[in-house]
Design a protein that fits this description.
The complex is a heterodimer of chains A (490) and B (491).
Chain A (H helix, E strand, L loop, with lengths): L8 E6 L3 H12 L4 E4 L14 H8 L14 E3 L21 H11 L6 H15 L10 H13 L3 E3 L25 H4 L1 H6 L3 E3 L2 E9 L2 E10 L5 E13 L5 H8 L11 E2 L2 E7 L14 E3 L6 E5 L4 H8 L3 H4 L9 E8 L4 E6 L7 E6 L2 H20 L4 E4 L10 H5 L13 E3 L2 E2 L25 E3 L14 H19 L1
Parallel strand pairs in A: 1-2, 1-8, 2-5, 3-17, 8-19
Antiparallel strand pairs in A: 4-11, 6-7, 7-8, 9-18, 10-13, 10-16, 10-17, 11-12, 12-13, 14-15
Helix pairs in contact in A: 1-13, 4-13, 5-11
Chain B lengths: L2 H24 L4 H10 L2 H26 L8 H17 L5 H13 L3 H30 L3 H26 L1 H12 L4 H18 L5 H28 L6 H14 L11 H11 L5 H30 L3 H12 L3 E5 L2 E8 L11 H10 L6 H17 L2 H22 L8 H12 L4 H20 L1 H5 L22
Antiparallel strand pairs in B: 1-2
Helix pairs in contact in B: 1-12, 2-13, 3-4, 3-10, 3-13, 4-5, 4-13, 5-6, 5-14, 6-7, 6-9, 6-10, 6-11, 7-8, 8-9, 10-11, 10-13, 11-12, 12-13, 15-16, 15-18, 16-19
Classes of the chains: A alpha/beta (490), B mainly alpha (491).
């Protein structure tokens, strides 16, 4: 491409979520010329906190219809708006555990990512997001869970959240309208813009453009005034792809970048249950249960799930003829989950058909099934010990578990795979970083192998499952990586 | 080169091409014999018949245009036909096929659809016209066992037809892959070539999107073939006027060759190339040179006069300003310019079609929703839940959505066989029984098929105020909107 180029952006960031926002803020703070392209829209506060169907239409990728296919299909959702999934998650925050960092170093050759290396980045993110514990009396759904954990004598923790002063309005999954749950659209974007970062919402990047081993820009579909859409070329000196664990590998592969890209997707498969208590819980009017059982970590975590009547019906729908009458008792119910570390493997591919969708595939491994079965047994036992009259898992043919004997059998037996209704909100590792070139798409700081100026910096870079909610790991690694980039540029 | 000087060059080049073709067409012709042929010709009733066939063809074009924009605008066939004819008339008097822009401009003005979309519609019409003409040429040459260069042309036409069909198939079913391929292949050719190639492919993909529904594709394909059969009828009708047998095969070949030939840029009205290719097509089928030229002149009159006069009348009727409309359409098409959007400089490569509108719930969606929901839901909550279902299904990746559509077709077929009525025609109890048999039965794939509609509809119902009311619950309570500045909260 010999012609002179007159209009270039120094650093182009694709995606404005946990990875993209940190990348843009750090670059802008360092005085760099940075522009961010976001596929979703930018929403005002009054777009948040709506009913689930409306929130799915406004804030979720493909309105929440992004199934992960495989032997056991998984329901998967992620955000598609300014701020990405941080706008619709519960804000739970974990640092990457020491054991996980050590394993990533050993298995992927991940350099300079020890606990001490990562600590300043976690400190920075925690301050920005106001990470803290819930400062009011625990809601009933949490208290019942705590009662069960105490009865079982298991280790647990109240998980800190990015929601200082949370008003317990139970709107996390619809975007918090109170401003207390701090997605990055509130926590980082105003500062990033003040420092000069430019953000273009409703701009979907179709493809990266290359000149030999340099990425010279992108081809993007942009919404302009009057809702018109144009196809535009945007030139850049450096490109960071931060489009999330499924869209980043899809975009890279669509652009011909395939080396270890999109072949190692990992997720935390999750099985939900509803528990019915004799007393009123009113889980639909409070924040989700705040505790996680750590006794069986890293393989299994037990915790609380988002609850509304609609989501309860969704969870009961596998056994609807037997369970639909429980809807009348919804005020006595709350939702909980078993999440496992995810030993299966998956892949991500851009669809060649029609709409430019992304195909996601994940095979639940035998270890996952064992962990889910044992996790279900333990969760049911815990909830029954907490006083639940019955536990209703999202497993077809298992409408209700009412006794510890019924529950405990799953410690030794495997759940029927074909009958599981699994979900996940945690996906990662689709472009793993590390020095082991035989298994990593990018070096330890996210620079893609074989390319001079192309980087990934979102959940896709985590080499393997972190075993905890990944937002903290994503933000800390994003800051570490972009600071390394800035240092090299300087 | 400025656009004005470029247009001047196009005009000069077109005039040169016209003169060259005219000269080649008449250089060995005895013009006195041609005059004698005209003198002895029997214009009645054949020439008016030819014109009538051509006019009918325009009405079919109008019907096709109406079909193409039916989701965006309620256009009458007469208005749609007038839009088409104004485009043809403009092409007859303006150089460089400017009529296509006039037509797009007038379509936008008449319907209120964006100019870019009107241009896309015009583009797809031309694209399917090309495919229909090639289809007729290949069919006619095989049917008439034509030899010589026409046979060669038909063979090449068959190849082009196959490639065009494959290309169209790619554009319809694999648009993302086609765009990516065009971009990747053209990147080594330089920036301008890349942007041009991507812009062109984008236009094709935009246009081809209307063919994504098989039924729509079939209707548009059939209408396009009918359009060109009408035009062939015009060519047939002129044959007896000159004492030739009214051979449909000969006429279809002459029509196809002529219309492919006038793709060569020339003067307004295609004077020269039209006569050359039309007469050559007849010559190749054993007609004498003088009669062939006389025929070409008569067909050209039948082609030129009605559209031009009708178009002029329509322009007066609708008050169309050709120059302004074309300029507007040209501006809408203009690309390869730098714009700053959101503070980011971007090189605009192509305009894109409007995004699809929110999916509407079909009668089947409503019937299915009612069969899944708990009893007692009002029509409003059923309607809203069905609309949500339609939107969610439309959002699925194409592959999954296609599987869902196939599965539901099988279910509906099974219902028809089992109950001897359509699903929508069943009473609610039977619909519930039919759904329950699949959704909660023992066959896993059938259960999987109903998983998405079942969970989607239940979610919508129990998030709806009317659904919540069945539980004695209130609508989600009013949530306070953020009152603190975003940066304030963390200090």
């Amino acid at each position: 491409m010999a012609e002179a180029v007159r209009h270039r952006t120094e650093v182009l960031v694709v995606g404005s979520g946990a990875g993209g926002a940190v990348t843009a803020l750090e670059l802008a703070s360092a005085g760099r010329d940075v522009a961010v392209l976001e596929e979703g829209g930018e929403h005002a506060d009054d777009d948040y906190g709506k009913s689930s169907p409306e929130a799915m239409r406004l804030l979720y990728r493909r309105r929440g219809m992004t199934p992960i296919l495989g032997q056991v299909p998984l329901g998967y959702v992620e955000g598609a708006c300014v701020g990405g999934s941080t706008e619709i998650n519960s804000g739970f925050w974990h640092r990457t555990p020491r054991e996980v960092l050590l394993r990533w170093h050993a298995q992927f050759g991940l350099a300079d990512a020890g606990v001490d290396d990562m600590a300043p980045h976690f400190d920075w993110a925690e301050e920005r997001l106001g990470i803290s514990k819930y400062d009011r009396e625990w809601p009933k759904s949490t208290r019942m869970f705590a009662q069960g954990i105490e009865a079982m004598g298991w280790a647990y923790q109240e998980v800190p959240r990015a929601a200082p002063g949370c008003l317990s309005t139970n709107a996390c999954a619809s975007g918090c309208p109170t401003g207390k749950k701090r997605g990055v659209s509130r926590a980082l974007w105003p500062t990033a813009r003040e420092k000069g970062a430019r953000l273009v919402p409703r701009c979907r990047v179709h493809q990266l453009l290359f000149e030999r081993h340099r990425c010279i820009g992108v081809l993007a579909e942009v919404e302009v005034e009057g809702g018109r859409r144009v196809l535009a070329r945007i030139d850049a000196d450096h490109v960071f792809v931060c489009a999330g664990p499924t869209e980043t590998p899809a975009l890279l592969r669509r652009s011909g970048v395939k080396f270890h890209v999109g072949e190692t997707l990992r997720v935390h498969p999750m099985l939900k249950v509803a528990a019915r208590f004799p007393e009123t819980i009113d889980a639909h009017q409070s924040v989700l249960p705040l505790l996680q059982v750590k006794e069986f970590w890293p393989d299994v975590s037990l915790g609380g799930a988002f609850f509304t009547p609609g989501h309860l019906a969704l969870g009961l729908s596998d056994n609807w003829p037997e369970t639909s009458d429980r809807m009348q008792r919804f005020r006595n119910m709350a939702s909980y989950y078993v999440a496992v570390r995810g030993e299966g493997r998956g892949w991500v591919r851009p669809s060649k058909l029609g709409d430019g969708a992304t195909l996601i595939h994940y095979d639940v491994g035998p270890g996952d099934l064992k962990n889910l079965s044992q996790g279900l047994a333990r969760l049911c036992t815990l909830l029954l010990a907490a006083g639940a009259e019955e536990v209703l898992p999202a497993v077809r043919g298992m409408a209700s578990i009412t006794s510890e004997d019924e529950a405990i059998r799953w410690l030794d037996e495997a759940l029927p795979k074909a009958n599981l209704s699994l979900t996940t909100v945690h996906a990662f590792s689709s472009c793993p970083i590390g020095e082991r070139s035989e298994k990593c798409a990018a070096d330890s700081f996210g620079k893609l192998r074989r390319y001079e100026n192309l980087y990934v910096n979102d959940a896709s870079v985590l080499p393997d499952s972190p075993g905890v909610n990944p937002q903290g790991s994503v933000m800390a690694f994003a800051r570490r990586n972009v600071q390394h980039f800035i240092d090299r540029l300087s | 080169m400025s656009s004005e000087s470029s247009r001047r060059w196009v005009t000069v080049l077109g005039a040169g091409v016209s003169a060259l073709f005219l000269w080649v067409a008449v250089r060995h012709i005895d013009l006195a014999s041609v005059k004698e042929t005209w003198r002895t010709a029997r214009p009645l009733p054949w020439i008016p018949l030819a014109m009538a066939a051509y006019v009918v063809g325009h009405f079919v074009r109008g019907a096709r245009l109406r079909f193409l924009v039916r989701r965006e605008a309620g256009l009458q066939v007469t208005t749609a036909t007038n839009v088409v004819v104004v485009g043809y008339a403009s092409n007859n008097v303006l150089p460089a096929r400017l009529g296509e822009l006039v037509r797009a401009g007038m379509l936008a003005e008449r319907t209120g659809i964006p100019l870019t979309q009107a241009l896309t519609v015009t583009f797809i019409e031309r694209l399917v016209d090309g495919v229909a003409i090639l289809f007729l040429l290949v069919g006619a040459s095989w049917a008439t066992h034509t030899a010589g260069w026409i046979a060669e042309l038909a063979r090449v036409g068959a190849l082009v037809f196959g490639v065009a069909l494959a290309g169209l198939g790619l554009a319809v079913f694999f648009p993302a892959a086609l765009g990516a391929l065009a971009s990747r292949l053209s990147q080594p050719l330089g920036r301008r070539a890349h942007d041009t190639a991507v812009g062109l492919v984008t236009s094709i993909v935009n246009g081809a999107a209307v063919l994504r529904r098989p039924l729509d594709a079939l209707v548009i394909g059939v209408l396009s073939v009918v359009v060109w059969l009408c035009e062939s009828a015009m060519f047939v009708a002129v044959l007896p006027a000159l004492g030739l047998a009214p051979s449909p095969g000969m006429a279809v070949i002459a029509m196809s060759v002529t219309n492919l030939g006038i793709l060569v840029p020339s003067t307004p009205g295609f004077v020269g190339p039209f006569h050359f290719f039309c007469s050559q097509a007849l010559l190749a089928q054993g007609v004498g040179a003088e009669i062939a030229l006389a025929y070409a002149v008569l067909v050209h009159i039948a082609f030129y006069a009605p559209a031009t006069l009708w178009g002029a009348g329509a322009m007066l009727w609708y008050g169309v300003e050709v120059g302004a409309t074309a300029a507007l359409a040209r501006a809408a098409r203009r690309s390869h310019r730098v714009e700053t959007i959101g503070g980011v400089p971007m090189q605009i490569i192509a305009q894109l079609a409007e995004p699809p509108k929110e999916a509407e719930a079909s009668d089947f969606d409503r019937a299915l929703t009612e069969a899944i929901l708990p009893p007692g839901g009002s029509a409003a909550v059923v309607g809203d839940s069905a609309r949500f279902l339609a939107g969610q299904i439309a959002a699925l990746p194409t592959r999954v959505r296609t599987l869902y559509a196939i599965g539901m077709s099988v279910f509906r077929f099974w219902v028809r066989v089992r109950y001897l009525r359509s699903f929508c025609g069943l009473d609610l109890d039977r619909r519930r029984a039919a759904v329950a048999g699949w959704a909660f039965g023992t066959i896993a794939p059938l259960r999987q098929l109903f998983r998405a509609p079942r969970s989607t509809v239940l979610l919508a119902f129990y998030e709806h105020p009317a659904g919540l009311a069945t539980l004695g619950a209130e609508e989600r309570r009013h949530l306070p909107v953020a009152t603190t500045a975003p940066e304030e909260a963390h200090g």
